[in-house]
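Moderator note: this is an archived Q&A kept for reference. The question asked for a predicted structure of one protein chain; the sequence and the answer are reproduced below.
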Amino acid sequence: MSTLAHTMMTAARSTDSGLVGPGELDRYPYAEGPAADRVGTSAWDGTDPELGRVGRRTAGSRGRGLHGQLVQQLGQMIVSGDLGADRPLVPEEIGQRFEVSRTVVRESLRVLEAKGLVSARPNVGTRVRPVSDWNLLDPDIIEWRAFGPQRDDQRRELSELRWTIEPLAARLAAGHGREDVQQRLSDMVEIMSHAMGQGDALTFSRADVEFHTLLIQIAGNRMLEHLSGIVSAALQVSGGPVTGCDRPNDAAIAQHARIVDALGTGDGAAAEAAMRQLLTVHPEVERVVPAPREH
């Protein structure tokens, strides 16, 4: 195992939160924060306590104290339908129920408004907006939908979107070969292989996220790069349709390695084909994306 791969694997196991410099595995933290740091009240009266959990930290509103935690709580409740448009969101009531200050409530509602979940109007108050207004590409909303009543639709849509984005990214990336990037992708494959052998799902997942995110970033298309957060969020949502990324096995490792080899030789068609094979849903579960047509 290369020195870089060994260092990154060690970091993945020893650190479970926080953002560090570009290119390190811990830029994609997964673990939940300590229970003592969460908002005091998990949910409003009559809601499922499970909605109160702070999910995997994939987006900017995570891990920022009470403000970030309240965004999580309210976001999950809105997406689940427990907070609907039938009544306004009263800041004073929110502050009392979650035992947070008016400033924390105000900042949290602003974040949710930026995500399209709520709107604030004079003489009307703050109300939940219809789903058609939500920013469905926001990593937070992706996760909230994936762990709520819309979980099946969200995971299917994510699989379909990845199947559209990533094969193209793999093809484009083959034209931007760099030795340092090739080595890094190879390290990710090596880490995944070793982690699979050790039964280390956390390290495998982190390396997988790093692999797919880096691949999109080197495709040379800034609009595709802007979508890398969606792929990162999709990889961190478990329990969906089973693809090669969801089920660590030798075949999945081999497909990742094929992608790296194709990038090394500049073979865009082979890189695209390997990515499509990796993202194809396994036959033992319902097929999400049809096989590509033969032209």
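Archived answer notes: The chain has twelve helices and two strands.
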